[in-house]
Amino acid sequence: MKKIAILTGAGISAESGLGTFRAEGGLWAQHRIEDVATPEGFARDPRLVVNFYNARRAQAAKAEPNEGHRALARLEEAFGGEVIVITQNVDDLHEKAGSQKVMHMHGALKSALCAACDHRWPAPLVMAPGDICPACNSPAARPDIVWFGEMPYDMDEIFEHLASADVFASIGTSGNVYPAAGFVAEARRAGAQTVEFNLEPSLQGSQFDDIRIGSASETLPVWVDELLGR
Ligand code: APR
Ligand code: ZN
To answer: Among 21, 32, 91, 174, fewest CB within 10 Å belongs to which?
Structure first.
């Protein structure tokens, strides 16, 4: 049974109005990573960090999936084999489009995490520093986001998916951040056919068997129709 492992990055959500990180005027041009995406930043100024994610959570809550997300959901539903989406994104647009098997390796805006007991629960739209953990009652709630210097989630399971993939697709990621940037090498080692979808080749562009240049909302439906023999 054929297996397709799909990595997505901020580029797949760009056409849904959610900003990417490294483009001109992107999120990392507006905010310093060390201030809003590190444990040290959170310790220094929890309100700044919680408000940064409150703003992104509010934006994501209003955002709609685009034809790229919907194509992947259609692929999972109609494909005879297995499809797994491994996303670096913290929005829930894959789920809103109908994808069932989604792994959020960098966490999710819709989830809150307790820094004291690791309990997770659905995040309120607006979090505040010192929110109480419903499991241990400590004022230790934090955004359930994997910050720089922290370990991405479910890496063992992700590497198992890469090791058994027949096809690996990487969509809308610049390839700046590991371990995701190393996934194409893992998939190639496993003998998978590899394809990249981006506006321009990523840093790992030369490692892909095929590159589809264009907006994901246009290139993905074409690819999915090919896979479904339409
Ligand atoms: N269609 C396809 N690709 C697109 C589109 C689009 N419509 N718009 C932008 N892109 C591509 C850009 O060309 C770029 O290669 O999406 C990529 C976005 O790159 P980044 O902004 O670096 O985002 P990403 O690769 O997801 O960042 C990875 O870095 O800051 C951390 O945790 C954060 O998950 C994030 C990680
Ligand atoms: Zn707790």
So the answer is: 32
106 is catalytic: yes
Fold classified for 19-62+111-145: SIR2/SIRT2 'Small Domain' (3.30.1600)
Name the one residue in this structure whose structure tokens are 């096809």.
167
Give me the interface pTM, i.e. the ipTM.
0.99
Domain at 3-18+66-106+153-227, CATH homologous superfamily: TPP-binding domain (3.40.50.1220)
Distance CA 100, CA 156 (A): 20
Closest C-alpha to ligand 1, atom 35: 88
**181 CA distance to ligand 1 centroid (A)?**
11
Q: Is the CB of 211 under 6 A from ligand 1?
A: no
